[in-house]
Amino acid sequence: MKIDGKIQIPNAIVYAVLYAVVFGISIWLLVFHPDNPTNGYLYVLMIVAAVTGIAKFALNGRKRNRRAA
């Protein structure tokens, strides 16, 4: 069996899976453990994760557009 090490996974897929895991765990904790004292931190972390992802894709898009011009 030969493994091709040159296959590259697109960043969008990697970040989508990462955010799905982060938000899945956070939502599970928020729904099934509403009395958890760390829920306030989860809301903040979910917002930070979303803003970071948006900024990452926005900066990559700007960089790609600048290179094309």
Describe this structure in words.
The chain is mainly α and about 70 residues long. The protein contains 2 helices and no strands. It has helices spanning about 10-30, 40-69. Helix 1 (about 10-30) packs antiparallel against helix 2 (about 40-69).
Which labels suit this protein?
69 residues, mainly alpha, 2 helices
- Poorly predicted runs of 5 or more residues: none
H and E string: HH
Distance N terminus to C terminus? 43 Å
Average pLDDT, rounded to a whole number, is 76
Question: What share of the residues does DSSP label as strand, in percent?
Answer: under 5%
Proportion of residues in helical segments: over 70%
Secondary-structure-based class equals mainly alpha
Round the Cα radius of gyration to an integer and report it. Answer: 17 Å
Topology diagram in text:
Blueprint: H1 11-32, H2 39-68
Helix pairs in contact: 1-2
Write a compact overview of the structure shown.
This protein has 69 residues and is mainly alpha-helical.
